[in-house]
Specification:
By secondary structure, the chain is α/β, with parallel strands linked by helices. It contains 18 helices and 10 strands.
Length: 428
């Protein structure tokens, strides 16, 4: 009888223990991160989150990996409805800044964040605010890439460092003709991507009052060339006309498949090329072609931001602190082959996890190109109106490339659409 009593008591204790564990698991905070990837960073982030979950049994992070189109088109709708994830990786930082949570009360050391991530905080917070909404997962810069193998097979010299857009297009045309390629060059269907080239032509987009100004002649000069290159078959027309409205589309696949010798995109493509091109051909990062006034790319990057509607800001702060810590951030940057934002990590130096000489050379090329980034490009990146303006450019220029509008009509519609956006916002 005693044995039976002891056995029952032990069983009861075991059940109580199991129940306690189940209760604790049930009470663990569930934090969701909405994440998109250009290359391998989703795999790296999932690995990091698995490690975080093992180290923090009271918080469980779920990484929802979605397309960039989802981030651009569906997340804003969720945010406007008061829904969405707890944390998100986004590029549309400034115009959605009112939705971001100020992490200052929920992180251990705000001064660490300001010291190491402070240069880009204005990109993601409302004008005049000192909030800490998140951090840049990487710094990016737009620029060109060439298929060096195709250039060599065609016997065409790679344009010099200070070569113009016309020089680059002419060289790419020569390669495409020699190698019987469908396109001479491709450029992403993105307003951000065409801003650096337009600034190189002398374009000014921001008025003295901070509001958008009508397209100036320099803007029209570059955009006219872009439409012309696309409609005459020099540029990869499918990238621009296979989508509609403000939809983003990259030209990376055509470059990876050796369908075009010259591709204008950005530094975030480096890990993508390292993985998908491998040893199929030699590729080189070339910086940005020159216009009459500059040879600039556009800075940018993706930010990881906390969402104001989260029900557990304290847990969000713990997750963000862990990810922003220098050791974890350094590992993320080294494994994803990105350019870092964290000043402590930059000062310490990076040991990129690759034996690919092309990758290291490309990273160094973008670091070098960053020294020629025009001040107007940095200003544009932190401008409240940038994403609205970029979306309008893409929509109307895409219509011109598809033959639905003349170039002049596209310019007229751009100015009208932008003016309407400003009016709808009450002129703010």
């Amino acid at each position: 009888m005693r044995t039976t009593t002891k056995t029952l008591a032990a069983l009861a204790l075991g059940l109580m223990g199991a129940t306690s564990l189940m209760a604790a698991a049930a009470q663990a905070a569930d934090i969701r991160i909405e994440w998109y990837s250009d290359g391998v960073e989703g795999q790296v982030m999932q690995d990091l989150m698995d490690r975080f979950n093992k180290e923090h049994t009271d918080i469980h992070v779920t990484l929802d990996q979605v397309s960039y189109q989802t981030i651009q088109e569906q997340l804003p709708v969720q945010l406007a409805a008061g829904q969405g994830p707890d944390i998100a990786r986004v590029t549309n930082l400034k115009t959605q800044a009112d939705y971001w949570l100020d992490l200052t009360p929920y992180i251990k050391d705000a001064d660490f964040w300001r010291k190491n991530y402070g240069d880009q905080l204005d990109w993601m917070r409302p004008d005049g605010s000192d909030a800490i909404p998140g951090f840049m997962t990487q710094i990016t810069l737009t620029g060109g890439f060439i298929n060096k193998t195709l250039f060599e097979q065609a016997g065409v010299d790679v344009p010099a460092e200070n070569a113009t857009w016309d020089d680059w297009i002419a060289a790419a045309q020569e390669v495409a003709k020699s190698q019987q390629l469908p396109y001479a060059f491709a450029i992403d269907r993105s307003g951000h991507r065409i801003t650096g080239p337009a600034i190189s032509y002398g374009a000014q987009f921001i008025g003295k009052d901070g509001k958008p100004v009508p397209l100036d002649q320099a803007s029209k000069d570059y955009m006219t060339k872009l439409v012309g290159w696309t409609t005459d078959g020099t540029g990869d027309k499918d990238v621009w006309v296979s989508a509609s409205g403000t939809t983003y589309r990259a030209g990376a696949d055509d470059f990876i498949n050796a369908q075009t010798p010259y591709y204008y995109s950005g530094s975030w493509q480096i890990p993508n090329f390292a993985t998908k091109i491998g040893s199929n051909f030699d590729w080189v990062a070339t910086g940005s072609p020159c216009g009459p006034t500059a040879c600039t790319g556009m800075p940018g990057g993706a930010g990881l931001v906390a969402i104001k509607t989260t029900k557990d800001p304290k847990s969000v702060g713990i997750v963000m602190d862990w990810l922003a810590s220098s050791p974890v951030y350094k590992e993320f940057i080294e494994r994803t082959l990105f350019l870092p934002a964290n000043k402590e990590v930059i000062a310490e130096g990076l040991d990129y996890k690759t034996d690919d000489a092309q990758v290291k050379a490309a990273l160094n090329a973008f670091v070098k190109a960053s020294s020629s980034t025009a001040p107007e490009a940095y200003q544009m990146q932190g401008w409240t109106w940038n994403n609205a303006v970029w979306g309008i450019w893409v929509s109307r220029l895409g219509q011109a490339m598809a033959g639905e509008l003349s170039t002049d009509d596209a310019f007229k519609r751009i100015d009208e659409d932008v003016a309407q956006k400003v009016s709808e916002a009450g002129g703010k």
